[in-house]
Design brief:
alpha/beta, FAD/NAD(P)-binding domain, 6-stranded mixed sheet, 15 helices, 17 strands, binds flavin-adenine dinucleotide, FAD-dependent urate hydroxylase HpyO/Asp monooxygenase CreE-like FAD/NAD(P)-binding domain-containing protein, L-asp_N-monooxygenase_NS-form, HpyO/CreE_NAD-binding, FAD/NAD-bd_sf
Length: 493
């Protein structure tokens, strides 16, 4: 059977690992696609500054579904990278751990072929006879001759390009994406005044790099709310007692097949009561001063850890939770509750919080909120705040507003996804990303219906897999997707 994996980051390598672990593996012929730089490492775990840390303790994040500590063991057994504090290792180290599997497999097996190019087009062919199988063609370089035929395709292309909320892309001094952070200052003069738009996780990454390497300080980090993510507390094991499939099934049966948002929230409140989480106090704990907010989190690792662990467990189960809601309730959830979920999940390591406090206190970083508009005038960026008379001026702007989630916002930076949407192979999900079957990750095409052998995993599925694209959740989806591939293979041998 001919298999393609398009995109060799976390999801792609994870799929390959699952494929390799099966006794029928040698019966597959596998092509994997990515550019030479990202092949095996992906974007979040690419080579970058060692200050950028993974957001889970090293012992809790791995590509092995049955061994969360596999990455840490790999780290301990190699000599290339060594760090004094390995509790949260740099992200690029995780990238090398992933890549080590790709390299090992590539050397060991002749049924894996690395194609060091990005896919540019994909199209389908299906004969007219009854039960005719769909064949998938993946192409590179926009050349028909460069198209290869497959029975099974994994679409693991990662995050979409960054938002450009103020339409500044292409202007001099505008850095459209903060990664790799060590390239952000390539064309920046020592005297330039720098602002970073966004105060989320990628903003933290770039702040830490720029503050250490740019002489003209302070730099400004600004956004509408000016709030940083929370700080990781002491995580615990959680067993959900109220948000369970059984309880959801009961509600679905009495509510025409959906779980009303209020019912879900009531169950969530009960979970909080079970774990003695002071929900109201925690969600309203921020006072709007970044130093006070970070210090509060650092001082309350126990209760925050329990809250974050609960949210993390809910995210792991988000596929059936999220897809039990009606579309209207999903929209209501996004407005009312998603900001709370976002602010309290994917927390930063305590070490990052301490560093940030230090940089703000010594005046290297200024955090601003209430950003209303950014314009480019006379070769300068003008930042407007409604409660500030005069605007602020900068020469360089680093965009850390996060990746796009909606297909309608994509442009040439995501040409492959635009292409397959244009060919009606994929279609937009109203909540973001593309339509897939939640249980199986099979793509739902507007032209061909459900495509059983086109499997999408990762950020591109964010409408269905809301908040469910961390490493461990991607691995879980890969395990199940590969089981389905082998079930099909066995039936057709
Ligand atoms: C900055 C950042 C930090 C993160 N840190 C963590 C963390 O610490 N822990 C955690 O659990 N999660 C983290 N995440 C979440 C993260 O999204 C996932 O963990 C994971 O890396 C995503 O895997 P992926 O395979 O979907 O994407 P990626 O790992 O980025 O892989 C996608 C790959 O597809 C390739 N590609 C794109 N288009 C094409 C094409 N047309 N043809 C061929 N190849 C293509 C890209 O080059 C890339 O290599 C982080 C995310 C970001 C953005």
């Amino acid at each position: 059977m001919r298999v393609a994996i398009i995109g060799m980051g976390t999801a792609g390598v994870s799929i390959l690992r699952q494929l390799e672990s099966h006794s029928y593996f040698k019966e597959l012929d596998i092509d994997v696609y990515d550019d030479p730089q990202n092949m095996g490492q992906g974007v979040p775990f690419q080579n970058d500054s060692s200050q950028l840390l993974i957001n889970l303790p090293s012992k809790d994040m791995s590509l092995n579904f049955n061994d969360a500590a596999e990455f840490f063991k790999w780290y301990e057994n190699q000599n290339q990278f060594k760090f004094d504090n390995a509790t949260y290792l740099p992200r690029f180290v995780f990238g090398h751990y992933m890549k080590s599997y790709l390299e090992k497999f590539d050397q060991e097996y002749d049924n894996i072929h690395l194609i060091t190019e990005k896919a540019t087009e994909m199209y389908l062919e299906q004969g007219f006879e009854k039960d005719a199988k769909i064949q998938y063609f993946v192409c590179t370089n926009h050349q028909q001759e460069a198209c290869r035929q497959y029975d099974y395709v994994f679409l693991t292309v990662g995050t979409m390009a960054y938002h450009d909320p103020y339409h500044l892309k292409g202007l001099k001094g505008y850095i459209k994406s903060p990664y790799p952070t060590y390239e952000t200052l390539n064309d920046v003069k020592d005297t330039d005044n720098i602002a970073i738009i966004g105060t989320g996780l990628s903003s933290l990454d770039v702040i830490r790099y720029v503050v250490k390497h740019h002489p003209n300080l302070p730099i400004t980090a600004t956004s509408r709310h000016g709030e940083f993510p929370s700080v990781r507390g002491n995580m615990i094991d959680i067993t959900l007692k109220h948000i369970t499939k059984e309880n959801f099934d009961k509600i679905l049966r009495s509510h025409f097949g959906v779980v009303p948002l209020e019912s879900m929230i009531r169950l969530f409140e009960k979970e909080c009561e079970t774990y003695d989480i002071p929900l109201e106090a925690l969600i309203h704990r921020k006072v709007g001063d970044p130093i006070k907010d970070l210090k509060y989190d650092l001082a309350h690792p126990e209760i925050l850890g329990v809250f974050q662990s609960l949210l993390e467990t809910i995210k792991e189960n988000m596929n059936w939770i999220w897809n039990s809601l009606s579309l209207q309730d999903q929209e209501a959830f996004m407005k009312k509750y998603m900001p709370i979920l976002k602010a309290n999940s994917n927390p930063m390591p305590p070490r990052t919080a301490r560093l940030l406090i230090e940089e703000i206190e010594i005046g290297h970083v200024v955090v601003k909120k209430g950003l209303e508009d950014v314009r480019y005038e006379n070769e300068e960026y003008v930042f407007e705040y409604p409660d500030q008379g005069e605007p602020d001026y900068y020469n360089v702007v680093i965009n850390a507003t996060g990746p796009k989630t909606q297909l309608k916002d994509l442009d040439d930076d995501d040409a492959f996804i635009v292409d397959i949407a244009n060919r009606q192979i994929v279609q937009a999900h109203p909540m973001g990303g593309i339509q897939i079957v939640p249980e199986t990750n099979q793509v739902i095409s507007p032209r061909h219906g459900t495509l059983p052998h086109l499997i999408a995993i990762g950020q591109i599925t964010n409408g269905i897999n809301q908040a469910r694209n961390g490493v461990n959740m991607i691995v879980r989806q890969s395990v199940q997707a590969v089981e389905s591939l082998y079930a099909f293979h066995q039936e057709n041998r």
